[in-house]
Write a structure and sequence with these properties.
By secondary structure, the chain is an alpha+beta fold. It is 38% helix and 18% strand. Strand 5 and strand 6 form a beta hairpin.
Length: 182
């Protein structure tokens, strides 16, 4: 009885296969499938939110002499989508491509390079210019509300954190000295 059922099921397999014919025929993933992440270099501002949110550390942020590099390793990526969720500029998306096996090492990585803006006080490169532009764009309404010139705000954004601390300290000391003289 059992043998007869096994033979019948076996013969049905010739009519309609029970598994996908994947390598021979392409397999189309379902809608919403999370495949490899892909950067949009035009939108990326180099803030590093994706690198901070990545649980496997597949995205690495590195500042070289005058540029910031965001490197994504497909070898370490878990395709969780956290990078896509936290990106403020919508510059990284998970696409449906999933066939990532390669013999070429350069195909296992993708990279975005951004020019760093130099501090207007000390000249040290510290922030991507696209990040300054994005900050100015986001705060434009608030700046207009308080009648602050956009170029003045950009000048403030272009001072590195180290110089900003020393300039703040100098301003506080100056105010303190002015109060003492009164």
């Amino acid at each position: 009885m059992v043998k007869k059922r096994v033979f019948i099921e076996g013969f049905r397999g010739f009519e309609k296969p029970a598994t996908l014919r994947y390598p021979a025929e392409p397999s189309i993933p379902p809608k919403g499938y999370r495949g490899k992440p892909e950067f949009d270099a035009q939108k990326c501002i180099g803030c590093g939110a994706c690198a901070q949110a990545c649980p496997t550390r597949a995205i690495e942020l590195k500042d070289d002499e005058n540029e910031r590099k965001l490197t994504l390793s497909y070898v370490h990526c878990a395709f969780c989508g956290r990078c896509q969720d936290v990106c403020p500029e919508d510059a990284i998306h998970l696409i449906s491509e999933y066939e990532l096996a390669t013999f070429a090492r350069e195909n296992a990585f993708t990279e975005v390079k951004l020019q760093l803006l130099k501090c207007s006080n000390c000249g040290r490169p510290f922030i991507p210019s696209s990040q300054v532009d994005a900050a100015t764009r986001r705060t434009k309404d608030t700046l207009e509300k308080y009648r602050i010139d956009v170029n003045e705000a950009k000048a403030l954004y272009s001072i590195c954190p180290n110089c900003r601390i020393t300039l703040d300290e100098m301003a506080k000391r100056k105010l303190f000295l002015l109060r003492l003289r009164k």
